[in-house]
Amino acid sequence: MSKLATDTTNPSPRHLLRLISDIGDLKELGQSALPLHWNEANSTYGSSTDGEFRVSNSCFVVLYHLAANIFPDNSDQVIVGRLQAVDFAITTPGLRPNNVYSAAIFGATCRAIGLDPETSRKGKKALANIRDALEDTAQGGVAWTSHAGGGTKWESSGFLTYWSLRSLGDFEADDRRRAIALAWCRGEVYRQIVLTQADESELSDAMQLGYCLAACLRYGVNLPRSTVEAAFAAIFKQQAANGAWTKGAPILPVPLIGTLDTFAAEMFAVLFEDSQMYWDSLEVFLPHLTKFVDWLKLTHHEPSGTDKGGWQSNHLPRGTSQAWATATVAWVTDVLQRVVMTWLTSRAREEFETRVDGKDALDRLWDSTVVSHGEQRSLNEIIYTKIIEPVRGGIETRAALLFGPPGTAKTSLAKGIAFALGYPLLTVSIGDFLTEGSDSVARRAREIFNLLTGISRCVVLFDEVEELIRARDDQHSERESRLLTTALLPYFQELRRARNLVLVATTNNLGAIDDAASRFGRFDMVLPIGPPSPAEKERHLVRILLGRIETTEVRRILDEKAMTVERATYAEWDSLLRSVPDTGVALDLAQKLDELGEELQISAADWEQFKTQRGRLPLG
Beta partners for 370? Predict the structure, then answer.
């Protein structure tokens, strides 16, 4: 059983992390098994039962790779080039144009890759067959037609309708076929909800409901949120005690086997993917999802003999694993991981979020110059090239330790990074660890880091981090502080494994931070953050005094007051600028700078300490 078998009604972050771990284990099993299902003889993912070509096998593996954004490197048997291998299906007997099942899966996969499925004669016939099936106004949804026995038409299938819609790509201006199919899907959603609520177990079909709901959500059918939540409730109400679902209405007949039936993992993969805006509502179904994960664990095949390992549909007699079933389990576990991370992220935002808006944009902050080892670079350039662009480009986590005197906009930089990425900003300070008293700091630290470890797509700011990881060799550091540092440092390293996370820690004094904090594995870079550069301050001052004092005279005065100019923070210089419009002569400007120099927030001693510390660091 899952480690989450108990306490699922109000799970702690630790419980949800364990669920994420369980799901991740299943995902890795699926990923590692898929290369073993590759059939080198015909360059497809064949069924391990008979090794023959199957369009759906290869297509589902390709769809999984695309949905999970997994592009294996050349050392893996499954290489990127094989994502294009579905193109082979057009020229093989496996794609029969009158087979609406294979045609729909094939067309949808081509669209996902960016290929036009109608570039060949056979592909055109396959998609024409899909359009004809969608045109059938008698039933609305797509149904299998048995060509033996006079063309008997089966009941409309949510599975076939969903994949047929995806096979056609983008909507056309006046697409009557889609309107008919989606109207049927919408009606089927309501019908299945009513049947389930009325306990009509013989008529209700969770798989049909799931695919019809996914089609409605994917293509923007107007469904009230209460209806979507009721549909999920109906699906989970039909879950069996072992965590599985009954197979529901068959999709099509299969010789020697009986019928092709919907695999629950397959339905949930597309439903979870298409319902992202409702993920926050799914936490109430955590006990059901936990049972589903348990069921996936119990039905996994270990590699043995001719069995390559993975999963097979539970509606077939026990046999060997199948490539398509293994791919769909890998797909659904990837999505389910993201669902649970969304729940953790919501909890973290409730507790730690700091508001960020347009006024926090980086281009509104005055730039400063980062100086180290005689090298100078723009701070904004470093922030963009070393943090923002890598995260946008797919590097999942970046961590920066910002140090500098008070008033140097370190917190504003974190806000600017969050705004640039479109991520929420979560601010954690020493006070958050003391909410339950000093005796509970260690336990509270575990709670906070357990929560943060499971979040994604956030900027996490540890403000005044020296209070959390104070140098252990500091003679003035108390024993409790040294113990806290020892306990917290591994947590910072663990955070690096989070998805799409930016960690920003700030301190006024780098020397107060434990040396181990700046080691590789905890922070990618340690950046010295000073006040805005003298050139930036001069630019703003000259703009305001334009026409009142000669620019050369302004520069002469600034050169004379260089120590004051250099140490003035953004807030102090902004205050000076507000008083300057009343200044018309050079003497008044020099006097105001003298007054500012007597009240600077950054003392001369702090400034010298900062310059010494930054000089020891290479630029990142």
Answer: 377
Sheet strands side by side (includes 353-354): 353-354, 425-428, 456-462, 499-507, 397-403, 525-528
pLDDT tens-digit series, residues 371-409:
766 678 888 888 999 899 988 877 778 888 898 888 888
**pLDDT reading at 91 higher than 80:** no
Mean pLDDT, the chain, rounded, equals: 81
Q: CB-based contacts of 447: which residues, under 8 Å, 6+ apart?
A: 12, 13, 14
Residue 146 phi, psi dihedral angles, 5° rounding: -85, 110
Find out whether 417 and 502 touch, Cβ atoms under 8 Å: yes
Q: What are 512-555's pLDDT values in tens digits?
A: 887 777 665 578 888 888 898 888 899 988 888 877 778 888 89
- What is the distance between the alpha carbons of residues 278 and 292, in angstroms, rounded to a whole number? 19
- Amino acid present at 25: D
Greatest mean pLDDT range, 53-57, 81-85, 346-350: 346-350
What is the rounded CA–CA span in Å between residue 376 and residue 614? 11
> pTM for this one?
0.79
Pick the most confident of 81-85, 234-238, 444-448: 234-238
Rounded Cα gap, residues 239 and 374, in angstroms: 66
Confidence (pLDDT) at 148: 55
> How far is Cα 425 from Cα 460, in angstroms, rounded to an integer?
6
Residues in the chain: 620
Return the HEC string of 521-582.
CCCCEEEECCCCCHHHHHHHHHHHHCCCCCHHHHHHHHHHCHHHHHHCCHHHHHHHHHHHHH
CA distances from 100 to 13, 62, 106, 163, 261 (A): 45, 19, 10, 10, 15
Place of tokens 């794609």: 95
Task: Please give the Cα distance from 190 to 185 (Å, whole number).
Answer: 9
Q: What are phi and psi of 596, to 5 degrees?
A: -65, -40
Gap between the terminal Cα atoms of the chain: 47
Q: How far apart are CA 122 and CA 189, in angstroms?
A: 34
